[in-house]
Amino acid sequence: MFERRSLAALLAVSLMAPAAPALADEEVLRRTANNGNLVMEDVPEIPASIVSDLNRYQNVRSASFQAWDADGSALYVRTRFGDVPQIHRVAQPGGARTQLTFFSEPTGGVSRQPNGDRMVFTMDAGGSEFAQIFLLDPQSSDDAVMLTDGSSRNGMVVWDRAGESVAYLSTRRNGSSNDVWMMQVDNPETAEMVLESPDGTMWGPSDFYADDQKLLILNYVGNADSRVHLLDLETRQLSRLAGDPDNPSSNFPFGFDREGEGFYFITDQGGDFRQLAWQSLAPGADPEVVTGDINWHVEGGAISDDRRKIAFTVNEDGFSRLYLMDGDSREFRAVDAIPTGVIGNLAFSPDGRSLAMTLNTPQTPSDTFVLALGEDPMSYAGLTRWTFSEVGGLDTDSFAVPDLVRYPTFDSSDGGPENIPAWVFRPEGEGPFPVIIAIHGGPESQSRPTFSSTYQMWVNKLGAAVIRPNVRGSNGYGKHYMGLDNGFKREDSVKDIGALLDWIATQPDLDQDRVAVFGGSYGGYMVLASAVHYSDRLKAAVDVVGISNFVTFLENTQDYRRDLRRAEYGDERDPDMRAHLEAISPNRHVDKITVPLFVVQGQNDPRVPVTEAEQIVAAMRAHGSPVWYMNALNEGHGYGKKENSDIYQQATVVFFEKFLVGDDEG
């Protein structure tokens, strides 16, 4: 039997003194679902009509590319046919997806053994994000074997070129430091730390040198400061190749070149955008920028096994453009055979003759595609779709395609950004439509024109327009734009939402009197902050795993990520910064939140602890304000299990129907 904390206990974690009579504990309606794993307070029963009406939207699948098999004749994808995504094998374009793993938890990233069939993948328990590394032989009927200790957090797994060992990030030493470890996969007892993190930042492997005696290392300090190092595995000597602590820049290792004389990496050392560069391994060498003529972020890519071919993608105003490059001459060309959308998970086949990818468009969920390549590193033929994910029988051709708009903000004429980009999904008809502003997390994430059955459900079932803004601090628009919300400038991004409300008021097809805000993680903070500042202009707010107080968040987030978050939000140990963070924290201002609030949380969230949700709920109730609260006891930072996410999505639609679309003032 699950025991909910009493209201008095909840109030103990709240920093907001009651300003109105608190709701009595017995006035809070509690119920559970999914064998007691989903706890709901003041969330009404979901009408059967809603469950039936949303069923198709909640049965949309995807199939993201994970890896090639050893001979390049088949692919491994991640898709869901039960409650959570698992690893499947696809033998031919349009072929059946043969399931290989059968866990009750979703599997993470997959990496296949060089010159072999076995693969490693990661998986956590209950959304804790303390992922373990597993070894799977898809040619065997044996279950996957866990290689790591079962308690530390592990990730960034990289095979050596011999296919015998893996390097990976792990907190095994003390539970908090992000060190680099190695192990022989056939003998996990050989696991040893090869690089002890000298500070509280993240250190992880990227690529092995041809002789497996050197390792490229990423040191991630913050979203505007990351560095590349070279680790000699024999001497354990560490040398910094790119990035300067005294002049921070973003630098992400890509891989060693074919001759072993240098390495490729993504850097913004030379300008506002991240560019692909090559740099010699010689001491003191400077980077040679390859893509200097492209004024957008290079976002990622892949190198073929023989290092002759390179593929990379560029984020052009939210859309992906694919390029092929000759690894020797460093000449490149754009590929025009890809549908407009967002590309990820690039990987060359073992023979380098094909390039697999995940492609997502506004009207199609993520599926796996393969581009046929020529002998010349920059030549290509046709694109073949390998997976055709189910979309619940919906006509996705009728789905709304978002328009990219730009609106001025409060300081556009006073040194601030010229405009704020936003994606707008509009229903059919003339309106005026109610509006749901969906704010991304990060804070350095980016809203992109991707497929979302949730947004399409809101458009088609609620008749609401959905706006996804990229307020200052978002990625994809240069490092200057991304840094405009740092430190003491945090609430400037909230003012960008105020400017969006101004813009909505100028649009005849949008109803300025029916606007809701929705967001998760940092986007949850933005929802709460928007409710603090703009309750008189909003009708409802949905906060999913959001930050309600920056000080308690920084003090309670998992140890392994605390310093990374301090680099973004500010160090709460500094008195001036602590006072600022307290001053802008939403749970200190619940008296200003007058709109209905729905708070959604996962009990095992390592990023934004459950206490962030509990204290905003307690503070709202102490102030006499009703609030819906949903907490999944077997989830973490968001809902990964279908049975939980289904009820959460249904409850969100009920919430919007009651407080946004209808006339209920709450």
Explain what the structure shows.
The protein has 666 residues and is of the alpha+beta class. The chain has a domain at 7-57 and 394-661: Alpha/Beta hydrolase fold, catalytic domain (Rossmann fold, 3-Layer(aba) Sandwich). It contains eleven helices and 38 strands. The strands form eight sheets. It has a ten-stranded mixed sheet with strand order 1-2-38-37-36-35-33-34-32-31, sandwiched between helices. A four-stranded antiparallel sheet has the order 3-4-5-6, with no helix packed on it. The two termini are 31 Å apart.
Rg, Å, rounded: 25 Å
Average pLDDT level = 93
CATH superfamily of the domain at 7-57 and 394-661: Alpha/Beta hydrolase fold, catalytic domain
Main sheet: strand order: 1-2-38-37-36-35-33-34-32-31
CATH class descriptor of the domain at 7-57 and 394-661: Alpha Beta
Largest sheet: 10 strands, mixed
Shape: globular
Number of distinct helices: 11
Q: How many beta-strand segments?
A: 38
Give me the CATH fold name of the domain at 7-57 and 394-661. Answer: Rossmann fold
Note the main attributes of this structure.
single chain; about 675 residues; alpha+beta; Rossmann fold; ten-stranded mixed beta sheet; four-stranded antiparallel beta sheet; 38 strands; disordered N terminus
